[in-house]
Write the structure tokens for this entry.
Amino acid sequence: MTTPALKLHSTEAAVRTAPPATILPLSPRRKPIAERIVPLLKDIAAVLIPPLLVVALLVGLWELLCSAPGSALPPPSAIITNSWELISNPFYDRGGLDKGLFWHILASVQRVAIGYSLAAVVGIGLGTLIGQSTWAMRGLDPLFQVLRTVPPLAWLPLSLAAFRDGQPAAVFVIFITAIWPIIINTAVGIRNIPQDYRNVAAVLRLNPLEFFAKIMVPAAAPYIFTGLRIGIGLSWLAIIAAEMLIGGVGIGFFIWDAWNSSLIGDIIVALIYVGMVGFVLDRIIASIGAFVTRGTAAS
């Protein structure tokens, strides 16, 4: 009857005297390089190939249609030949207005940056006031609805008369062009803050500054950045037209000067630069909006 007890004690003794098991770390199985690179290349190709094919098709069609004698517009091959210096060296500076496209675009971007920044600050402030106050909305909204329909260039003579200088006049045109979508979208965002958020703020007894920072801005940020994106696009459109009239260094005046010199190829090269810069400006605002709103703003 004592045999099972002896076996149990001997087993426990064997377990106590056995050396501890060694745990060997196992490295995770990595996929071969080919299996990792091929899907990545497929994704890149799916993004790049369709637009490249469309561009190649359009350029080929353009070359075919404009290569005939007597054509009003030059073909792409002629543009590359005649405007090669402008394409290959956008940084040259021979003084005066004889500069590469980089310097003209830089001057335009600087004007847009100043006017757009002022519009963003003032627009968000006024939009917050209109969205938060019923009396402010009733008093200011009809005025804004009328003023926002005035074409941007219609403000240029008035701003030239007021500032007596082309530089601040162009900045004012940018400001007055960009501010309306910022005001309207900010006001809509403030009005659409859920009542539950306001109730929570009341329960927590947030002061106005805390309510602005913790409730108002996060809730209205997607609307605000929608207005900011519309504003930057309109700003870039307006500065080109304004610079055609005020003169000086700027991509708008460069295009107008090329037109007066019958340099159609230079105009087309400048338009390509204008489109690329406008796209980059839009993506910058969209990226900031996605970062601030954690992806809830429209991209």
